[in-house]
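user: Here is a favour to ask of a fellow structure person. I have my own habits and do not want them to colour yours. Could you put it straight underneath, so I can go through it closely?

assistant:
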Amino acid sequence: MAFALAPSALAAGYGLEVFDTVGSTNAEALERAKAGGRGRTWFVSDHQVAGRGRRGRPWHTQRGNLAASLLLTPDVPLGQAAALGFVAGLALSDALEAVVPQARIGIGVDGGSTSGKGRFELKWPNDVLAHGAKLSGILLESAMLDSARYALVVGIGVNVVTYPQDVPYPATSLREMGADLDAQVLFLALSDAWIDNERLWREGRGLDAIREKWLAKAAGLGSEVAVRAEGRVVRGRFETIDEECRFVIRENDGNAIRIAAGDVHFGAVASASLDEKAGD
């Protein structure tokens, strides 16, 4: 099966660029935008050799995994468009639920237990988990096109057939879970699920609707967590995400801390090892 857009995506005017092998679908999309390429175009491959995640970390995309980036030219302020990362997480989790058969995996995030919310949960700010192990990462990147317009790229990488071993969190792949499907099938479902979730954000109740749906799938909600942010570690209970999608953690003294960017750890890894790294 070749990569293809769902009928709903075609009807909505989305385009598709397919690569047998690519350095980075995000980089390809950004370059196309700077050269005048139109928005609402997917860039997709099942083999990415120079992918990247948050904070410049490499993202492994071995042959058979999914690397997909959506190029957009939003007509809203950049800060508001940042919520599209949450839209992407919801779209991917919906796509996975649609195409992945009942599967097995028992490991929890950082050795902890899962919440029982379902097979796929969302870890703030940009990961999709399969029963607690990292299955996917999402990365938003932007570039100014002129004094008034900008391009936004929503990058989505999914471990379909393989997953990295040398990572700080437990990871998995769809194949490891026992799911016999390929990147092309998953992308078809993703391009369809994106339409519904983006519409919910844009035409429905906006960020409030996305926030409500995201929290219903949030990993670790209500549990003890540690967040490494701005050179320090904050510990407490994961209370919610606020109206700006910031992570809200309630410390033991009752103080609520709102975090715009950071690394969240659950369970055993929310321990002294983070303190040792806080000053790195």
Q: What stands out?
A: The chain has eight helices and 14 strands. The CA atoms of residues 10 and 173 lie 29 Å apart. Confidence is low (pLDDT under 50) at residues 105-116, 276-280. The helical segments are 7-11, 25-34, 78-81, 84-99, 174-177, 183-202, 206-216, 272-277.
